[in-house]
Amino acid sequence: MTGFLRTAAYILAGLCILLVSAGIATLIGLRSAGDLSPEKMRSFILSEEEQAWLKQMAERPPEPAAHKAEVEPPPGGVTEDDLLTRIAERANADRATQVIEDLRRRRLALDERQAWIDQQHAELALAKGDLERLRRQLDTSRLDLEEERRHLDTDRAQWAAAQVQNTTAVQHLGEAEQVRYQQQAKLYEQMKDAAWQSLKKFEPREIAKYLALMDPKKAAKLLTLAEQDKTVAEGFTTTIHRELLKLNLERSSTDQIQRLATLYGFMKGPEVAGYLKNSSPEEVADILIAMGDSGTKKRAEILESLRAVDADKALDAQRQLLKRMPTTKAAGP
Prior knowledge:
This protein is mainly α. The protein is 78% helix and 0% strand. It contains 13 helices and no strands. It is elongated and about 190 Å long. The model is unreliable at 328-333 (pLDDT under 50).
C-alpha cells in the first residue's frame, strides 16, 4: 500500500511540474507577442472611467513645492532654534560639571593617598630611629659583655691558678704522707711476724699501702699470716689483694690528673709550663691527654710554653703523646 501511494505521489508531482512549465511557457509566449502589456492588462481589469482617470492623472502638471511657514513663538517665548541651543548649552554645562566633580573627587583621593604616604614615611622614620637606638644599645651591651667576659676570663684564670696551687699542695702533702708510710713500713719490717697483730687493726686499704712499701718477701709473709689468722673476718685478705691492685704509689690518681687538666684549660700556656716544669714527662702526657679532643689547641700551647722552659721534657712528653695518642699532631718542630 505504501509503494502505491509513493508511486501516485510521484505521478501527481510530475503532472504538477508539467502544468507549471506549460503555464510559464504560455506566459512567456504571450509576452513575447505583445499580448501581455500593462495597458492590455488594465483593460481586462479596470473600467473605462478608471482608465480615463488614470490617464488624466498621468498628464497633470507637477504642483509647486509646499512652503513650510515658520511658527511664530508665543509672546515672551523662545524659538525652536533658541530652545535647541539652550538645551545644548545646558547639556554641555552638565557634562562640564560632571567632569569637574570627577576631577575634584580624584584630587581628594590623591590628597588622602599623599597624607597616607606622609604618615607611613613618618612612621618609617620613627622606626628607623628606634632601630638606630636599639643598635647603639646592642653595641653598648656587646662591649659590656666583652669587658665582663675579659674580667671573667681573668678571674677564672686566677681561680684556676689558686686551685692548681691547692692541688699541688695536696700532692706535696701526699708525698710527705708517702714518706711517713715508708718509714712505718720499715718499722713493720723490723717487727717481722709480730707486725701482723698491729696491721690487722687497720682498714684493708691502709694495710695494702704498708705492704706495697715493704720488702716483697716480708710482705708475702704477712699475707700468709693473714690467711692463717682465724680472728679476721672472712674475705679480709681478699679485700687486701684488691686494694693492692688499685694502688699507684708513684703516679697521681686519675681524679687528680683530670682535675689538673680541667684547671690548666683555664690558664695560659706559660703559667701551666711553670707548674709542669717539676713534673715527669709521663705526668705531663697524662694531663695533656686528659684534656680530651676539645683541648687540642690548649695542648699545643702548653707544649710550646714548656719547650721554652725545658725543651728536653717537652720533647719527652711529646713522644709519650705520640705513643699513647697516635692521632695527636706534634706541636712545632
